[in-house]
Amino acid sequence: MAVSLNIKNPEAERLAAEIGALTGESKTAAVVSALRERHERLLAKLQQTEDASMAEDILALAAKIRSRVGELELSSDFLYDPETGLPS
């Protein structure tokens, strides 16, 4: 099934023709390549945003855990022999 895209924009026409001339591609190939590159950049940016959000969530969770652990009485005494002070 062939789908047609008709862009009536002088700048788009000029840019597609210039890129085609520089690369030896047809105008269609130049447009497809540009769209593919932009699509990849947008997906990468979205992934970075999601990664940053996940990192913020993890840091918030770590802070919450640290605050609760601070309330507990933790001791490392059980790790050491009381007589020698050496690890048991």
Description:
The structure is a single chain. With 88 residues, the chain is mainly α. It has one domain (10-79). Helix content is 67%, strand content 0%. It has helices at 10-23, 27-71. It starts with 9 loop residues before the first helix and ends in a 17-residue tail after the last helix. The model has no long low-confidence stretch (mean pLDDT 89).
Topology, pairings included?
Blueprint: H1 10-23, H2 27-71
Helix pairs in contact: 1-2
Keywords: Toxin-antitoxin system
Organism: Microbispora siamensis
Pfam families: PSK_trans_fac
Whole-number tally of structural domains: 1
User: Secondary-structure element order, as H and E?
Assistant: HH
- Over all CA atoms, what is the radius of gyration? 30 Å
- Through-space gap between termini: 75 Å
Protein name: PSK operon transcription factor
InterPro entries: VapB-like (IPR011660)
Keywords: Toxin-antitoxin system
Index terms:
67% helix, 88 residues, rod-shaped
Task: Give a quick rundown of the structure.
The protein has 88 residues and is mostly helical. Helix content is 67%, strand content 0%.
